[in-house]
Design brief:
By secondary structure, this protein is mainly β. A hairpin with a 4-residue loop joins strand 25 and strand 26. The chain folds into 2 domains: about 280 residues, Jelly Rolls; about 90 residues, Immunoglobulins (Immunoglobulin-like), CATH 2.60.40. The chain contains 1 helix and 27 strands. The strands form 3 sheets. The chain has an 18-stranded mixed β-sheet that branches. Strands 20, 22, 23, 25, 26 and 27 form a 6-stranded mixed β-sheet that branches. A 3-stranded antiparallel β-sheet has the order 19-21-24, with no helix packed on it. Helices cover about 0% and strands about 45% of the residues. The protein is globular.
Length: about 400
C-alpha cells in the first residue's frame, strides 16, 4: 500500500488502503541537534494553553508490544515555561535553535519563544513577532545512535491543534546520514493546518526523484485529540491513525538508522510568508517509541494492537484501459489522456505508451489523467497502451488502441 504528495504533479504514488491523493510537501533539510534557546523557565511564564485542551487526554502507553520493545515515552509531567525548552528537559528533548530558518525560509525555529509544557501538555505557540514567523522542530532523544536514531522502530504521538493559515506539520523519521535520496524518509503525520486531510509519506530508498514515494490521505479534524503511529520494520512501513491502519508500503523501504523530528513550520504550498495575524497552538499529549524486537512480548501497559501478521504476497495484476484516445481516432497537437484502472488493493500510478515508448505518467490518484504532445511523433499510424501499478508492485497492461496523428 502506498502514498504520494502533490496537487497533480508527476511522480507520486498512493497507498492501497481507502485513501486518496495528497498535498505538495517537502521535508526540510536536516540540521544538527542542539540544546536550548536563551531563557529560563523561572523568568518567563508558561504559554497559555488553549481551552480546547479540555478535550479528553490520556496517559502515554507503557510496556512492550508483540514485536516492539518500549524504549522511550514522555507524558509531559514536568512544567516548563517559555524560554525553558528544551534545556529544562534536556535528558529527553532537543530542538532546532534560533536563528535557524525553516524549509521555506519564511519561518525561524525558536523553541524559546514557542514551546512550553503545562498540565501534561506540550504546547507550541505558532505566531509572528516583529515580522518574523516563529516555528518549532522538536527532537525526542530516543535511545539509540549518537543522533538518537535507530534502525527500525515504532513511533506514536497524541496531538491536536488549531487551524493556522500558512503553517504546516511534517513530523518525520529523518536519516542519521543526512539528506540524500539514497536513504529514504518517513513522514507522518503531515498536513497544512488548514487542510481537511492528514497525510503520510514514505520516500523510497535510492529515489530517482523527489516524487519517488508512496502516500496515504484521510479526512482529519485536528481540533480533536488523535494518535498517529509509524511502524517501521524490515521491508515494511505501516501508518496507523487512532488504531486504524491507513496505509503501508513494502517498496524500497528505508534501511538505515533514522531519528524522530517533530517539525512544525511555514507552509511550502502557500508560497508566501504567513500573515502576521496567523497564530495558534499545536499541542502534544504524549509521545512514545519502541525498538523493533521480534522477541518482545506484549505486556499489560501497551495500548496499541500488536503488529499484524504479514499476509501472502499479492500477485494479481490490476486491470487498466486507455481513455481519451479511441480506436481509429485522428489526433492533433496536445492530446488529453485518461485511463480506467482497478485493483482490490488500490492503484498507485498509471503510465501511457505510444509505439512502446513511455509518453505520460500520473502518480497522484484517480482520476488518472495527463496530456501528450502528439507532434513528438511523425504523422501517421501509431499504437497506444496504458500500464497501471498496484500497491504490491504488480503491473497491468491495457489493450492497445490504434490511432493516427496529423499535425
Amino acid at each position: 500500500m502506498f502514498l504520494s504528495r502533490a496537487l497533480k504533479k508527476p511522480g507520486r504514488k498512493l497507498f492501497g488502503v481507502p485513501i486518496l491523493l495528497a498535498v505538495s510537501c517537502v521535508a526540510a533539510a536536516e540540521l544538527p541537534s542542539t540544546t536550548t534557546h536563551a531563557g529560563s523557565a523561572a523568568t518567563r511564564s508558561p504559554q497559555t494553553v488553549a481551552p480546547s485542551t479540555r478535550l479528553p487526554q490520556e496517559a502515554a502507553p507503557v510496556g512492550n508490544l508483540n514485536g516492539w520493545r518500549q524504549i522511550y515515552r514522555d507524558d509531559f509531567n514536568t512544567n516548563v515555561g517559555l524560554g525553558g525548552f528544551p534545556g529544562a528537559v534536556s535528558s529527553k528533548w532537543g530542538a532546532y535553535p534560533a536563528p535557524w530558518k525553516d524549509t521555506t525560509g519564511y519561518g525561524m525555529y525558536d523553541p524559546g519563544r514557542t514551546v512550553s509544557i503545562n498540565s501534561g501538555v506540550l504546547n507550541e505557540h505558532i505566531h509572528t513577532e516583529g515580522g518574523q514567523p516563529l516555528v518549532a522542530a522538536l527532537l525526542p532523544k530516543v535511545p539509540g545512535t549518537s543522533k538518537n536514531g535507530q534502525l527500525y522502530g515504532r513511533y506514536a504521538v497524541r496531538f491536536r491543534g488549531d487551524a493556522i493559515p500558512g503553517y504546516k506539520m511534517a513530523w518525520m523519521l529523518w536519516p542519521d546520514s543526512g539528506s540524500g535520496r539514497q536513504y529514504g524518509e518517513i513522514d507522518f503525520p503531515e498536513r497544512n493546518f488548514t487542510s481537511p486531510y492528514l497525510y503520510a509519506f514514505m520516500h523510497h530508498t535510492n529515489a530517482t526523484s523527489g516524487g519517488d514515494q508512496d502516500y496515504a490521505k484521510v479526512p482529519f479534524d485536528m481540533s480533536q485529540w488523535h494518535t498517529t503511529v509509524i511502524e517501521w520494520s524490515p521491508n515494511l512501513v505501516k501508518f496507523l491513525l487512532d488504531g486504524v491502519e491507513i496505509g503501508r508500503s513494502t517498496t524500497r523501504v528505508p534501511n538505515t538508522a533514522m531519528h524522530w523530528v517533530l517539525q512544525t513550520e511555514t507552509s511550502i504550498t502557500a508560497g508566501q510568508k504567513p500573515a502576521a495575524s496567523a497564530a495558534g497552538n499545536i499541542q502534544i499529549d504524549w509521545v512514545a517509541a519502541w525498538a523493533y524486537d521480534k522477541s518482545a512480548v506484549g505486556g499489560t501497559g501497551g495500548t496499541a494492537p500488536p503488529p499484524a501478521p504479514n499476509v501472502g504476497p499479492d500477485t494479481i495484476a490490476p486491470t487498466v484501459g486507455v481513455a481519451g484516445v479511441t480506436e481509429g481516432a485522428v489526433r492533433v497537437g496536445q492530446v488529453p489522456l485518461g485511463a480506467n484502472a482497478e485493483d482490490a488493493s488500490g492503484i498507485t500510478q498509471v503510465k501511457w505508451y505510444v509505439d512502446g515508448q513511455e509518453v505520460a505518467y500520473d502518480g497522484n490518484g484517480a482520476p488518472w489523467a495527463d496530456s501528450w504532445d502528439s507532434s513528438q511523433v511523425p504523422n501517421g499510424a501509431h499504437r497506444m497502451f496504458a500500464k497501471a501499478r498496484d500497491t504490491a508492485g504488480n503491473w497491468g497492461t491495457s489493450p492497445t488502441v490504434g490511432f493516427s496523428t496529423s499535425n
